[in-house]
Amino acid sequence: MTTSPRKERKFPASAGILLGLGLGGFFDGIVLHQILQWHHMMTSAGYPPNSVENLKLNTMLDGFFHAATYILTVLGLVVLWNTARKPHFCWSANLLFATILIGFGLFNLVEGVVNHQILGLHHVNETVPRDLWIFWDIAFLVWGAVMLAGGFVLYRNSKQDRFDEVRRT
Hints:
Number of helices: 4
Number of domains: 1
Order of helices and strands: HHHH
Distance between the termini: 21 Å
Helix content: 55-70%
Number of strands: 0
Largest sheet: none
Radius of gyration: 20 Å
Shape: elongated
Strand content: under 5%
Structural class: mainly alpha
């Protein structure tokens, strides 16, 4: 009886990235929209929460935003589960953390550029004077870039560590 060479399944990077996108959205929605109340989805787009109607609209749009982040998180879990239940799955906490950082950083960068700068739907902290909004927006983008870069470095190093470990076996 011959044994076939062990086939190592790759870590599902897409699962971690989807989880990071979802977690980034949840952080933004829960912390910045609800707890700190720095902004809502459409506060700079002509719907500040200064009336019941505007607050209702923003609350509904925040809910759609949360639904989208929920879907991203569920998709990440589905991809992770579908890969994890197969034989010889390469479990790696470092790769999972790295890909979550990549997804979270991507969320901040895309949301920060598209919603804050291009569309002007809202800005990170609209409770400070208007001339300071850009500094909060830039800090949000820098935070996202640091997470993205840190995630890529950790991912690259963890993949190399995992490759070296598999070669030794």
